[in-house]
Amino acid sequence: MALERLQKLIAQAGVASRRKAEELIRSGAVTVNGKTVTQLGTKADPEIDHIKVNGKLINPKLKKRKNVYLLLNKPKGVLSSTADPQGRRLVVDFVPLKYGKVFPVGRLDYNTEGLIILTNDGELANLIASSRVIPKTYRVKVKGIPPEKAIESLRRGIRLEDGYKTAPAEINLIKTTEKNAWYEVILYEGHNHQIRKMFDAIGHSVVKLRRTRIGHLTDKGLSVGKVRELSPEEVQRFFAFSAEKSKKMKY
Fold first, then answer.
1. Does 108 share its domain with 124?
2. Which residue is catalytic, options 109, 121, 162, 219?
3. Is 52 left (phi over 0), alpha (psi -120 to 50) or beta?
4. CA-to-CA distance for 92 and 120, rounded, in angstroms?
5. Across the strands, what pairs with 165?
6. Are the C-beta atoms of residues 80 and 74 closer than 8 Å to each other?
7. S-S: 182 plus which of 174, 211, 235, 245, CB 3.0-4.6 Å?
8. What burial class does residue 171 get, using C-beta atoms within 10 Å of its C-beta: 0-12 exposed, 13-18 middle, 19+ buried?
9. Which domain holds residue 90?
10. Helix, strand, or coil here: 167?
11. DSSP code, position 144
């Protein structure tokens, strides 16, 4: 096996996501051949080197580990996390035991339902969570009917109350009723509570929010609370799509 970055190996072992693995390295929780490593980018070969995280050897996990890729249609009132001190229901509670330990890719708000990927593959998790080219599509119900001028400002990007400047977004009106408006919103970023904050900024709070699509994956045929495996083709499409888009952006 060739040399690989430590954070990638830790993620591949299913110990933590790539981002969390970097935090573990910086905190001094990782050793290679008995020596503490804190430098990001350090490489190791699990066929030769003994890699430990918090004192536990991860090499056996790398040898027997099989990548798992799942798609969950998350219900409202469920945390996008692997643990909660308050004992609330978690996305991992919907995963059958046969799949072993997985973690959510990104987050969906506690009161938001819809698609979320769960995996033990840190490489895919990092690709999707950090990507600015893989779109996430949402169906949004808001209080009242916003004027088109306000929606246009959201399409261009606005400065949120917390200081974050949103990137341009695709927003399409689906329908209106006497009291509400429904929109399809497509984002290429994932700032905390972003859609809710966007509509709060124009005075029309979100009443209901559901993620219906992640890249090429849709919620078609997957009812709320259900989980399914992703096919190898579905997984590979993320890597191929991201590579193609990144290549085009360079020219």
1. yes
2. 109
3. beta
4. 12
5. 159
6. yes
7. 174
8. buried
9. 69-131+217-250
10. coil
11. S
13 pLDDT above the threshold of 70: yes
Of all residues in the chain, the percent with pLDDT exceeding 90 is 71
Q: Which token pair is 75?
A: 């219900």
On whether both 97 and 195 belong to a single domain, the answer is: no
Greater confidence, 114 or 241?
114
The Cα 184–Cα 176 span in angstroms is 12
Q: Are 108 and 79 in contact (CB under 8 A)?
A: no
Across 177-183, average pLDDT: 97
> CB–CB of 205/139 below 8 Å?
no
In this prediction, residues 98-120 reach a mean pLDDT of: 92
From 33, 49, 64, the end of a domain falls on: 64
State whether 143 and 210 are in the same domain: yes
Q: The domain that contains 102 carries what CATH number?
A: 3.30.70.580
Active site residue 45: no
9 and 47 housed in the same domain: yes
Q: From CA 251, how far away is CA 181, in angstroms rounded?
A: 39
Q: Are residues 163 and 195 in the same domain?
A: yes
CATH of the domain at 60: 3.10.290.10
For residue 204, give the amino acid letter: H
- 198 and 161 in a single domain? The answer is yes
Residue type, 40: L
Q: What are the b/e assignments for 136-158, b being 16+ CB within 10 Å?
A: bbbbbbbeeebeeeebeebeeeb
4: pLDDT strictly greater than 90: no
For residue 36, give Cα distances in angstroms to 28, 51, 143, 250.
6, 10, 54, 38
Residues 207, 100 share a domain: no
